[in-house]
Automatic annotation (TrEMBL):
HAMAP family: IolG. The lineage of its organism: Bacteria, Bacillati, Actinomycetota, Actinomycetes, Glycomycetales. Pfam families: GFO_IDH_MocA (PF01408), GFO_IDH_MocA_C3 (PF22725). It comes from Glycomyces harbinensis. Keywords: NAD, Oxidoreductase. This is Inositol 2-dehydrogenase.
Length: 335
């Protein structure tokens, strides 16, 4: 039996996920889609052979939808995730889980009242082969105790609706989750440092930005976010330990030697860079639901922790102050 999935938000990644669930992931079918842009939803529904439903609320309540994928804009995730939990339906929510930590706490309260995990957050780097190899090296102890991490997150360019706060909430949030996962500890402070702005940006935007984080054990993480770097999608991560350093591998690509030069391509977009990771994360989510197994992917706690950190980074945006972060205790359900 296939899981009947409803997809909310049929923009860039929603359409990709509908296609992925229809063509690549096994054991799933897209039963319904919805978007506030009704025409867009109708187009995506038709291409997938799914029904268009007029609102997110109706899609969540639909008796022919077993599980929900949310790919709408960040600020509306909280109410949609809560409605799924209240309906007792598993929900895969694209990052960020919420744009406000209080909303993430409401989600954890609802999930704990339900009694088991229903929420998974779309932090797909945990499913990327390179990041998984990096974690294996760290966990083996080969580079010793981690002291520092240096991360780079560059997009070729970004759409006009992207705001200065999204550098933390939408972009650096990936590194926040990946580094919490890699280092196995929480962040305790955040600071945002602003270099000179690139002229190759929309006028409203502060780009690039540098985020400085400290972990509970005193390790330091720096993240450069530069979303109009012009040359491609470039993700770098190096972790320096007491006995060595380990670096995220670049995607494999043949080096071309020609006219006195050797060159490898830089991928243009995040869809190309993390395509396989998106496939694996959704396949594992579907498999666990089909087999009646507990969800083990990034949880509501992970979504909450990431939002606490990015809230602090946004708070530091104008003052440059170091903002302490107190996550509170991790509930038993997320141990
Ligand atoms: N894991 C990853 O690497 C990526 C994650 N994302 C995340 O996915 C989400 C969507 O991003 P994009 O597809 O790039 O945005 P987008 O702007 O292309 O699409 C968002 C869609 O949501 C719809 N929408 C907004 N409010 C809605 C509501 N209340 N009910 C139903 N539909 C609603 C919009 O009409 C739009 O079609 C964001 O949270 C973003 O951070 C996006 C790209 C990559
Ligand atoms: O999640 C993503 C986008 O929402 C975000 O806007 C981009 O900066 C990231 O590179 C991409 O992975």
């Amino acid at each position: 039996m296939s899981i009947r999935i409803g997809v909310i938000g049929t923009g860039w990644i929603g359409e990709q996920h509908v296609h992925r669930l229809t063509s690549t992931v096994s054991g799933a079918e897209v039963a319904a889609v919805s978007d506030i842009d009704l025409d867009r939803a109708a187009e995506v529904a038709e291409a997938a052979g799914a029904r268009r439903v007029d609102s997110a609320e109706k899609l969540i309540a639909d008796s022919e939808v077993d599980a929900v994928v949310i790919a709408s804009w960040g600020p509306v995730h909280a109410e949609q995730v809560l409605a799924c939990v209240e309906a007792g339906k598993p929900v895969f929510c694209e990052k960020p889980l919420t744009t406000d930590a209080a909303d993430a706490r409401r989600i954890m309260d609802a999930e704990q009242a339900f009694g088991r995990r229903l929420v998974q957050v779309g932090f797909m780097r945990r499913y990327d082969a390179g990041y998984r190899r990096l974690k294996e090296v760290l966990d083996s102890g080969a580079v010793g105790k981690p002291l520092m991490a240096h991360c780079v997150h560059r997009n070729k360019s970004i759409r006009e609706h992207y705001t200065t706060e999204m550098a933390a909430r939408d972009t650096a949030v990936h590194e926040v989750d990946a580094l919490r996962w890699l280092l196995g500890e929480e962040f305790v402070s955040a600071q945002t440092v602003l270099p000179r702005k690139t002229t190759k940006r929309f006028p409203h935007l502060q780009d690039p930005q540098i985020f400085l984080f400290e972990t509970a054990s005193g390790a330091r993480v720096d993240v450069e976010v530069f979303v109009n770097c012009q040359y491609g999608y470039d993700i770098q991560c190096e972790i320096v330990g007491e006995e060595g350093a380990v670096r995220l591998p670049d995607p494999a690509a043949p080096a071309v030697r020609r006219a006195g030069r050797s060159s490898v391509p830089v991928l243009p977009e995040f869809g190309d860079r993390f395509e396989a990771a998106f496939d694996v994360e959704l396949q594992e989510w579907v498999d666990r639901i089909r087999n009646g197994e507990a969800l083990t992917g990034p949880s509501a706690w992970d979504g909450y922790a990431a939002t606490m950190v990015t809230d602090a980074a946004v708070q530091s945006l104008h003052s440059g102050a170091i903002i302490p972060i107190d996550m509170g205790d991790r509930p038993e359900l997320y141990a």
